[in-house]
Amino acid sequence: MPRPVALAPHDPQWSVRAEARIAELHAAAPGVFCALHHIGSTAVPGLAAKPVVDLLGEAGSLAGIAAARAALEGLGWRWRGENGVAGRRYLTRDDPETGERAAHLHVHAAGDPMIAWHLAFRDRLRAEPETAAAYAREKARCAALHLDDSGAYAACKRAWTDRVAAVAVKP
């Protein structure tokens, strides 16, 4: 069942929550992650977002993340496999008190081009307020069209995000 889309004004606590999740993941799966990053709209100061923290994990190998599955599930992460993106392991975590989605974890093997895509997109939005403002408008447009379907909302934004990230990752 698709989740509804509700954009919220930027909350500085999103970064605090991301750092807490990152520390927790490193402790639960020592040596599995080469790096963990806070990505997505919640990582961009001033940008409205769905109040769901996105994290990007760089794993030494996908076998390593698979071996850590039980430890991650013990923290409340739900394993979703590739979930439509080849080479990714995707996990979600809901708030235990509200049942609302609280975090996404996108894991790729170190060196996967998707890592550069996510980081370049985030960094461009952080560095260019006009690009972040344009993205806020695109997000609002897509949310108005797809209030009851987070998947359709994400698909609506895809061409815009791909275009911006493509410019950001050029050598």
TrEMBL record:
Transmembrane segments: none annotated. This is GrpB-like predicted nucleotidyltransferase (UPF0157 family). It comes from Brevundimonas basaltis. Coiled coil: none annotated. The keyword Transferase applies. One of its GO terms (molecular function) is transferase activity. The keyword Transferase applies. Pfam families: GrpB (PF04229). Keywords: Transferase.
